[in-house]
């Protein structure tokens, strides 16, 4: 004979709200030192991991051109040019800039801080909105005196100076081929 099937009503599971994991700069650095990000480019922004776009050929070209142009000028002025360097913005934000001029040679595996930096440069191939927005205000907030965004789509360099209250008071646009005054030096470079 057939038995009656009992219908069991399952109670809906309570909605669990997920919260993003938040990390401190110290935790981020421990993860990086342990190799957690070896196969990717990551920044820590307001405690959250932000994956960066892989650099494309045009990005690499301009990064190399800017670095190579700054290197001899930095040397004469007693400064150091760095490529792909980490900057501590706060206890919950670590940014990576494409090129930097710094006052002291890094002698340990540490992040640069604002007093070290004379110039930070970003190459904006696919990151123009980020570089002109949140990165600009982060760099201004920590007092980086001069910040350049190389915008190859428009063949210009956006030059930001005089950080005041979390933004830059001085904004200029220099066309490719025109001289750029290198802060902290008597030199100029041109980008083509």
From TrEMBL:
Domain Putative restriction endonuclease, first and last residues per copy: 26-183
Taxonomic superkingdom: Bacteria
Keyword line: Endonuclease, Hydrolase, Nuclease
GO molecular function, one term: endonuclease activity
Entry annotated with the keyword Hydrolase: yes
Pfam family, one: Uma2
Protein name: Uma2 family endonuclease
